[in-house]
Automatic annotation (TrEMBL), chain A:
Provenance organism: Chengkuizengella axinellae
Residue ranges constituting the 4Fe-4S Mo/W bis-MGD-type domain according to the UniProt record: 19-77
Region Disordered: start-end pairs: 355-376
PANTHER family in the record: NADH-QUINONE OXIDOREDUCTASE SUBUNIT G, RESPIRATORY NITRATE REDUCTASE
Names of the cofactor(s): Mo-bis(molybdopterin guanine dinucleotide)
Keywords: 4Fe-4S, Iron, Iron-sulfur, Metal-binding
Keyword Metal-binding attached: yes
CDD domains (UniProt xref): MopB_CT_Fdh-Nap-like (cd00508)
SMART domains, A to Z: Molybdop_Fe4S4
Protein name per Swiss-Prot or TrEMBL: Molybdopterin oxidoreductase family protein
TrEMBL record, chain B:
Protein name (database record): Electron transfer flavoprotein
Xref: Pfam families: Fer4_11
Leader sequence residues: none
Domain 4Fe-4S ferredoxin-type: 3-33, 39-74, 76-105
Keywords for the protein's UniProt record, in alphabetical order: 4Fe-4S, Iron, Iron-sulfur, Metal-binding
Organism: Chengkuizengella axinellae
Superkingdom in the source lineage: Bacteria
Length: 717, 187
């Protein structure tokens, strides 16, 4: 069923009468599963899905979100016309909107943004973006903010998703490509060490490769506070307390050194920082680490033994370790395992993060981040600024400086330093932490624009809502969780009066008097060509990744340039890392506890995550009947012993609260969770949002909020 | 090459993608004909798909007073022919696995037909096409034979649900949980 063998025997597709199949990829997570959209050739409407068996990463497989993704396009909730709300007192509700023409809506936006900027300075208007959209759109959004709006305040929802993985990879390896190797290597390795990833629910189509490792006699080690569906079948489940990963990873390195499972030649030739790390991890004996993590010393010893002995192994991690106030340190500490053992820079061995959003990888590389420009260039590096200015046709003096991270944008809104926001491709009214604060900051904005294809919870705070297109009504590239640039194809013309985000931005730019920087971009392909040029010479170099090459090769792995004409599926094969001296950095990272530890008033640990039926804030998936039926509402997972202590029963409603907020949830009793921890899925809006309770303690490097652990208490109602 | 549906229960993660995909098959009127059970939801996350096993001598067809349930030449036990089905529900009672369901409004039984408009041409059924975990696989007889020889439980019991069959001889083959018990590790 796997890899090359399957590709020799690819099943045919069924094509019904009056239908055609459009090859594309899913709209949701970083797996970017291949799919064919079924289009009725008489109505030119998308009507269904057919597996895309020849796509090498997923071979036709799809999760329930993928199977039903097509239902988004012609959904009854689609916004078909711009909406304007004249009565600002109705902000924060669905009320008060009226339909308007594009002319009126765009003119109003430009009038209000310009008036705010005239009074309070250019930076008073901010852009809050997302990465569930193509590279072309992500690239243009960065240019739009800096060239048209001339604001430094642009950031994006990847701060709530991939920022810590990016920070950790940059520090350890000098480059941030989520996976050092293609996904088609996964099932061929001998040991998967997976930390903080509920892979079965968040990246389900990875699972057949994960199980194949075990079917071949290899090992699966899972680090997670919950016995998730992947942990259930793992050879070893390290059921740690939320927020203690750094101690666990340090213990792994301690044991790898102690057991002689390190590769001294690799360490000497290709890394820095080993000696100080060795000294630091000495403290992290299995007994000491067990006290911090709650994982038994025997399990810790066994895990290090398996990883150490494995001829090939892959260390993988996800939001569980990354969404912490020490997320970057967690990532670097897990990468340490691969660096001390030399299990990186060859096929079947390496490190990988499970990218959350569809274009979480590409979207963070090309200038939507407050401090980055296309090609992973730094806005604080004058040479980098100069290179991008040449492509954009502006002078370096005109380039705004670095801004602040996503959550900090809301803090500046609260301080009235930011008074306007252009929000697209994101739903922070559900997905940001500490939501009482965030929602209030949005409500008090002088003027807010939201571009979305449904009326999201965040759109309820907007003065103007612009109807944009779904992924199926535009084309462009996306970079999947492997670092493979792939092509999204248009299957249907935009419905109603909806427009793509890049068309909208060009329209606004024209009205801003900045048409000359944008008018030459008539199609997504035009943007792609300029975008590739803008990445040339950067770390994330896409210059050689033409749409034609992507089509021919089933995707192109970056870097792809004159040196690597066909792209780079495996990173570091020459054992050269991206720091100036070519060496990777083994990081000595002292343990520190989560920002908020349990105490007498808040004795429990709250952690959050996804379910298989929903994607991110649920703005899309909660509208799909099948997915809604399967998981209509949030719940709180509680261990039976904890339930007895609080005298609560399955299905009973309880009040869950933290220092920041409270919500009412139905109890779900399960033994598949630690006795000191409760879990709530985060896909729900309004009063059901668990992010009313979560902690916005930010990682000092990545500015990632600590979604994954805070102190909480339960009250029986 | 003839292929058969093979179920490896050990792999199921309960994502119910097979249900969503079932609704996509041309002849299924956007209604799923397979089911997924939470085995012991208070204890762990184990789940299992409940699929029609396409019995060689199917109780559903045998119990039908009007031969509305036909067996296709591929062995697939088809859904009731709409023009023949009386709505007597004998089949829903006769099936040992509870697969045939009854639509009260249409007064009609419906069940899995193994995506006959796909499998008649050798194309895998929708459920096995999308299954992210290889719980549902579309395999050749040779691949099936390898599975059968591999998966034996340490107590001598086969992990394969046949010979002796729990109920009938079936065209769909099942490995019960436990397939990794006797697995020799690489190191």
């Amino acid at each position: 069923m796997l890899g090359d063998k399957a590709l020799k025997d690819v099943p045919k597709n069924v094509i019904h009468p009056n239908e055609e199949l459009i090859k594309t990829h899913c709209s949701y997570c970083g797996m970017q599963c291949g799919m064919n959209l079924r289009v009725n050739t008489k109505t030119n409407k998308i009507i269904g899905v057919e597996p895309r068996y020849e796509w090498p990463v997923t071979e036709g497989k799809m999760c329930p979100k993928g199977v039903t993704a097509y239902q988004q396009t012609n959904h009854k909730d689609r916004l078909l016309k711009p909406l304007i709300r004249d009565d600002a007192s109705k902000k924060g509700t669905k009320e008060g909107f009226r339909e308007a023409s594009w002319e009126e809506a765009l003119d109003l936006i430009v009038k209000n943004f310009k008036s705010l900027q005239g009074e309070y300075g250019e930076d008073t208007v901010s852009v809050f973006s997302g990465v569930s959209m193509t590279n072309e759109k992500c690239y243009l959004t960065g240019k739009f903010a800096r060239v048209a709006l001339k604001t430094k305040y642009i950031d994006y929802n990847g701060r709530f998703c991939m920022a810590s993985a990016a920070g950790g990879s940059l520090r350890s390896l000098g480059v941030d490509r989520g996976s050092s190797l293609p996904w088609t290597d996964l099932h061929q390795t001998d040991c998967l060490f997976i930390a903080g990833s509920n892979t079965a629910e968040c990246h389900p189509t990875s699972m057949y490769r994960v199980w194949e490792v075990q079917n071949r006699g290899g090992y699966l080690i899972v680090v997670d506070p919950r016995e998730t569906p992947i942990a259930r079948r793992a050879d070893l489940h390290l059921d740690l307390r939320p927020g203690t990963d750094l101690a666990l990873a340090n213990c792994m390195v301690h044991l790898l050194i102690k057991n002689g499972h390190i590769d001294e030649e690799f360490i000497n030739q290709h890394t820095n920082g080993f000696e100080e790390t060795k000294e630091l991890v000495e403290l992290f004996t299995p007994e000491y680490t067990s006290e911090i993590t709650g994982v038994s010393p025997e399990k810790l010893i066994r895990a290090a033994e398996i990883y150490g002995k494995a001829p090939n192994a892959i260390v993988m991690f996800a939001r569980g370790v990354e969404q912490q106030s020490k997320g970057v340190d967690n990532v670097s500490s897990y990468i340490n395992m691969a660096l001390v053992t030399g299990k990186i820079g060859r096929p079947k061995a390496g490190v990988a993060t499970f990218t959350g959003q569809g274009n979480g990888q590409g979207g963070r590389e090309h200038g939507q981040k407050s401090d980055l420009l296309p090609g992973y260039r730094k806005i604080t590096n004058p040479q980098h600024v100069k290179e991008v200015c040449e492509v954009w046709g502006i002078t370096p003096e005109e380039m705004p400086g670095p801004g602040v991270s996503a959550y900090e944008l809301f803090e500046l809104m609260d301080k009235k330093e930011i008074r306007g926001m252009y929000l697209l491709c994101s739903n922070p009214a559900v997905s940001a932490p500490n939501l009482n604060f965030v929602r209030n900051a949005m409500k008090n904005l002088d003027f807010m624009v939201c571009s979305d294809f449904y009326l999201s919870e965040s759109a309820e705070f907007a003065d103007v809502v612009l109807p944009t297109t779904t992924w199926s009504e535009d084309e462009g590239t996306v970079t999947n969780l492997e670092g493979r640039i792939i092509k999204i194809n248009q299957a249907q013309k935009p419905i109603g009066e909806s427009k793509t985000d890049w068309e909208i931005q060009i329209e606004i730019a024209k009205r801003y008097g900045k048409g000359k920087y944008f008018e030459h971009l008539k199609t997504a392909k035009d943007i792609a060509d300029e975008f590739r040029l803008a990445t040339k010479g950067g770390n994330a170099d896409y210059s050689g990744a033409t749409w034609e090459k992507i089509e021919e090769q089933n995707g192109v792995f970056w870097p792809c340039n004159e040196e690597n004409v066909n792209g780079t599926p495996h990173m570091f094969l020459d054992k050269k890392f991206y720091h100036p001296d070519g060496k990777a950095k083994i990081c000595a990272l002292p343990y520190r506890p989560p920002a908020e530890e349990p105490d007498e008033i808040y004795p429990l640990r709250l952690t959050t995550g996804r379910v298989v039926y929903h994607y991110l804030s649920g703005n899309q998936t909660r509208r799909i009947p099948f997915l809604k039926d399967m998981c209509p509402e949030p719940y709180v997972e509680i261990h039976p012993e904890l339930a007895v202590k609080y005298q609560i029963e399955h299905d009973e409603l309880i009040r869950l609260y933290t220092r920041r907020g409270e919500a009412t949830y139905k109890v779900k009793i399960t033994e598949a969770i630690r006795k000191d921890t409760v879990f709530v899925p985060y896909h729900f809006g309004h009063k059901e949002s668990i992010n009313l309770l979560t902690n916005a303690a930010l990682d000092p490097m990545s500015r990632m909020p600590e979604f994954k652990v805070c102190a909480a208490q339960i009250e029986k109602l | 090459m003839k292929k058969v549906l093979y179920i490896e229960l050990e792999n199921c993660i309960g994502c119910r993608s097979c249900l969503a995909a079932c609704t996509q098959c041309g002849g299924h009127e956007e209604r799923n004909r397979n089911y997924v059970i939470d085995v012991n939801p208070f204890v762990d996350r184990q789940t299992m798909p409940m699929m029609c096993l396409h019995c060689e001598n199917p109780p559903c067809a045998r119990s039908c007073p009007v031969q509305a349930i036909q067996v296709h030449e591929t062995g697939a036990v088809l859904s009731a022919m709409t023009e023949k089905c009386l709505g007597c529900q004998n089949c829903t009672i006769a099936c040992p696995y509870g697969i045939p369901k009854f639509d009260v409004e249409q007064n009609l039984m419906y069940k899995c037909d193994l995506c006959i408009d796909r499998t008649k041409d050798g194309i895998p059924p929708m459920c096995a096409s999308v299954c992210p975990t290889d719980t549902l696989q579309w395999v050749t007889e040779e691949e099936l034979a390898v599975k059968k020889s591999q998966f034996r439980l340490s107590n001598g019991m086969m992990a394969s649900m046949e010979d002796p069959y729990l109920e009938n001889k079936t065209n769909v083959h099942v490995s019960l949980p436990g397939i990794l018990e006797g697995k020799e590790k690489l190191f």
